[in-house]
Amino acid sequence: MPIFFLKRLIGAVPVLFAVSLFVFGFVRLLPGDPARLVAGADATEQEVASAREALGLDRPIWEQYLRYAGATLHGDFGVSSRTHEPVIAVIGARFLPTLWLTLAAMGWATLTGGLLGVWAGVKRGRWQDQAAMLVAIGGLSFPGFWLGLLLIDLFSVHLGWLPTGGYDGWRSLLMPSFTLGVGVAAVLARFTRSAFVDVAGEDFVRTARSKGLTERRVIWRHAARNALIPVVTLTGLEFGTLLGGAIVVETVFAWPGLGRLLVDSISFRDYPVIQALILLLSAEFVLINLVVDLLYGVLNPAIRLRS
Fold first, then answer.
1. How many CB atoms sit inside 10 A of residue 137's CB?
2. Which of 212, 227, 244, 273 can pair with 199 through a Cys bridge, CB separation 3.0 to 4.6 Å?
């Protein structure tokens, strides 16, 4: 297992290098002058030039990248142009709200979607299968911002049970996590059903039944376990997507997370924060893929041995 993990870890290095190049080039293509934004609307040309020098934007582009890459390797992501605080502190203050929101959404979505998919697969072709897939399609059809507004109108405005937004305890987590997880649960339900139906027709499942095992043991010990392998991949990708893409939900519920921070930073041309955020989210995708690879090895030792 350590060699298996080490190979995957080394393979992630060129990916992160390519991402750092892309991110650095991308933020330089954004319209607007960050030095002008930092100096202020009424600043003189000399003050703008001083701000540009302080930000290091007066240096050749290759030198800017080398300085950025070198500092990043030492864990230094610079200082925010907007708040003048270390980027690490700015991101750290927004990371936990997004992490809690993502974990809550993925928790209920994975459990509900997985069980619904297995149930539909077991009842394939019956009304239960059709009902489960109808629910899944309904979940995919709801735009996140619209569902969020409906929930606020019902549970906050009319019933007064939950706060309309903000980050204040578990009650404020319910509506945004549900809104964020609905689409994921629907995708997982459909994907789990397809994977389960494919696996249920394999020889080893028929062999398990021919041995006289109970249907429950055949489903959960043999069919569902092998059907989980592609589902684990999808779950990892969805987790990464939620962690970095909860912008709409965070905006609707005034959630102080990374999504809103990214939008605010792009509006202000805050290069250090934008670069650090995108690099962090890319590294998070790489890490999740590493975890997925390790789970492959746990679920099916043959995959680990082949690698």
1. 12
2. 227
- Strand, coil or helix: what is 124? coil
Instruction: List pLDDT tens digits, range 174-195.
Output: 999 999 888 888 888 888 888 8
**Percentage helix, strand, coil, to 5, in the chain?**
80, 0, 20
Which pTM was predicted?
Answer: 0.73
Q: Which amino acid is at 46?
A: Q
Nearest-angstrom CA–CA distance, 236 and 293: 10
Question: Under 8 Å CB-to-CB from 166, ≥6 apart: which residues?
Answer: 172, 253, 254, 255, 256
The closest of 270, 263, 271 to 24, measured between CA atoms, is: 271
The arithmetic mean of pLDDT across residues 277-297, rounded, is 77
pLDDT tens for residues 97-131?
A: 888 888 899 889 888 988 888 888 888 888 888 88
Determine the 3-state secondary structure of 280 from DSSP. Answer: helix
Of 78, 87, 72, 59, whose CA–CA distance to 20 is shortest? 72
Q: Which of 7, 74, 20 is nearest to 281 (CA)?
A: 20
Contact between residue 260 and residue 242 where contact means Cβ atoms under 8 Å apart: no
The single-letter code of the amino acid at 10 is I
Alpha carbon 238 to its chain's center = 6
- Rounded CA gap, 115 and 258, in Å? 30
DSSP 252-279: HTT--SHHHHHHHHHHTT-HHHHHHHHH
